[in-house]
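Q: Trace token order:
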Amino acid sequence: MAFLTRTHGVGFAALALGLGVFLSRILGLVRDKIISYHFGAGAEADIYFAAFVVPDFLNYLMAGGYFSITLVPLLSLSFADKGEAGTQSFLSAAVCWAALCIGLLTGAAWAAAPLLAPLAAPGFSPEETRRLTHFLRIILPAQACFLPGACFTALLYYRRQFIVPALSPLLYNICIIFGGLAFRYALPERGMEGFCWGALAGAFLGGLLFPLLAARAGGLVFKPRLRHPRMKELLFLALPLMLGQSIAALDEQFLRIFGSLAGEGGVSLLNYARRIMMVPVGVVAQAGGLAAYPFLAALAANGDMEKFLRTARSAAGNILILALPLTVWMQTAAWPIMRLIFQQGGFSAAHAAESGLLLCVMLFAVPATAMQQIAGRAFYAQRDTLTPALIGTLVTLAVLPLYFFCAHKAGAAGVAGAGAFGVILYAVLLCRRLRTKLRQTAALRNSSPQEIAFFGSGEVAGKALPALACSLPAGACSLGALLVLNPVCSPDALGAAVLTAASGAAFALAYLLCAKRFAPFLLEPLTALLRAVRRRFSGQGGT
């Protein structure tokens, strides 16, 4: 357990969280591959994916996705006030309140499941709605594990112990896969019910028990309590996140809700495409944001706003250097990627083509998500949860009619487009508001708008624009390779692998040549890695 509780710097944090998210996404793809192979894009898969709408909404309603982020700066303040004992007493109160609130809410939702199911999937038939209710009641109790677990994860982030938060999602996905396969071969008549039980087991083991054990190994002494002076401040910070729901958080649920209006298979195809889109989001954007957040919180607590701004800009620029080329390549290769990963068993060539189009549309939101991850955490580090929640809620309300209109006019592709537009709009407004907020701080009040600019700053735009400029001709080369090879490649998985590899090689070669000629600094992360590997194998790594 000592390895799991070591403290690390921002570089290792980004690597560990990025690798953890990457492996989690891979397991998520394996899980969805199993689902697509056995159930394709049919009614049973639609019901399973729709069964997460209500549980996920409860998680967002309790600020579950941001609860650990909200706790980190308060844990820092508690330690500054009363040392380790103050930190542990505050955490104990937070855990108890989280467990109590989410337990009551989950119980109410479980009882009301027959009423909530039609709202989660308004396009389902009565029989599908009844089965959705059954799945919903299996998955709902998982939320009672996630929120208390987020408190223990916050303690690990505060201690800069990133290994367990990186591994927890892996355990969650492993349980889902095991549960689904166990039922598939032992009780095939139960359909996808096993995946639901696997999600419940994974929430307990990966979401609650694993972080709890790591926190205890690091010295946590948990004593149940409901009173603590900082609970009011926690409520003040969490309330905007609970009442305000951003398009970035709810987009997946909207894809499922409005996807049910796009006909049978709409929910499944949107989910499969989003699963691939979330690979670069998780590995690049979310991992970079999580890694930078504890350092931003510490700088904000110390009042070093100039370094705070430089750190946020540097993190955003470095993320975009990776996110932009990856996005452009995946857009050109969306169709063979979906063929390679999913086309087999019940997932047909027509499903691959349609989901490839959906993936291409969704990928437009990846760079915006990267900016939103950093800008949002810049607000949270300053203990401002109201601004992101307010902007997110307004954007969500504004795009809801667009989801409905696009679902009826353009089917699943329209739903994907509405989601991408909403995320982009949210990121733009959040970055603009961040610039205004930073200029209002005492340390930066006399700075010019250009000096305070976030996205338009030299650290960000100076990296993003060259990366995009090198990515576009590389994307053209990737597309050209696909057009040349597609007529001679077989329509099976081997052909899809050849197309994907060829497009990736063409893109990488063209991008490297452009970057070397016009923007060598884009290759600095790669050259630094190669130098480290060379030193390692030459026997100099340990000196």
Notes: Residues 244-464 form one domain. The mean pLDDT is 83. Residues 147 and 354 are 36 Å apart (CA to CA). The radius of gyration is 23 Å.
